[in-house]
Design a protein that fits this description.
Helix content is 74%, strand content 0%. The protein is an all-alpha fold. It has 3 domains: 128 residues; 120 residues, no CATH class; 96 residues, Exocyst complex component Exo70 (Monooxygenase). The two termini are 54 Å apart.
Length: 452
Amino acid sequence: MQAFRDYLRSRSMAASPLMRAKNMLHRSDSTSKKTSKIQKVLEKRANKIMMKASQTLEQSTGLAIGPRRSVVETYPEESGEAGDEAEAEAAGALACALVKVARHEQRHALGLVPLPRLPALLQLLLRDCCGLLAADVERACTRSRRAAARCGPSAGCWALLARLQRLLPDVERAFAPAPPAPYTAVLHACTQHCLRALEEWVEGVRADGAAAAVDGTVHQLAAAALAHCHALALHAHVIGPALATEPQYARAAAQAPAAHDRNAVLLAVYMRKVLAQLNFTLRNKSEQYPDALKAIFLLNNTHYLLQGLQRSGLLDVLSLAEPDCEANYRNLINEHKNAYLQSWNKLLAHTVLEEPLPPKLRDRDRQMLKDKFTAFNREWEELSRLQRGYSVPDAEVREQLKRANKRALLPPYAALCERAAAAPFSKNPDKYIKYTPVQIAAQLDGYFDEAA
């Protein structure tokens, strides 16, 4: 068992993407020539130029062109996820090996000792093997829990638990006539680790300190939450019975109609908890933005979650615990769109005339029109500068917002321009009417595209 465990670990290490990349980096090329002294000087100067450019770019945009990152820095999540899966697979393979060893010992012991003494002998023979399995299961579950605490992929422990449960009948036969108490203890410990991993994932969402993107795009937590729920759905038959032992989930599931799959209902209750905490965390993160970008950020994330739940089929599962979930998401999307459109109110105020213009303009009427267009131009240029950097990844939502912007801005601005054209207010009107309605529409068409 010890040798088999060492073999599994060496194989998983060799197969991991981190080790493959590391080997590629350290592979020597016998045909390469020594770097000349001139080339070294040129490389040193190039590095200085790159460092200077990186500092300038980082100060102006927040982006950095730093030195080439290491393999661990470049692929931290991929290598960590592969390692977690490898640990869980190795622990599952060790459990299979335990069954084979137990059967082998059982067959040989049957003809050597009296039957009444067989249970004690088998327990003694298999004690160290069970200890190795317990250590490996603990190791795999601990890695999954660490991943859960940082909102990473943590379903590996559930795959391990499912495998341990499938092996239980074989273990009972292989351990007979001894009770499989050491194995059931491992099974129970694994179940408890899995349940804690679920709650630690929610805590990870609550405590996440990663800043939201400057352009208001979808936050990485939203993508992680969808991936987490999708991975758990593959193990609903294992997660359901485990959650049923928790009073809060059992009470919530009892409120669902009896006709529904109980395991799916319990998973839906947990999903509802994850998504509710995610929504709360995203709202807190949105407070760093001005009002318009705050609405865009929440709109992007809410729409992304709804689309992801629909594509994966998880919306049907979630509806078992929250029947109105789709309608709630759509209502939130409309609220965020309306909140974004409110950002034009200050600009629209400059298109409203407090009183009708007389047939013959007075000096104060001419000055009022000049002030209106001057204020409109200033506000429009500032808003355009800001909103061109906003990101709306979904093409459909992007076009919806563009159309809504045109409906909100063009009619009142066109009406103001028509009034000004009908009543000349300046010898040089182009100085004040810097943008025609057609130009405003063209600029609105360019919104969200650069960042998207």
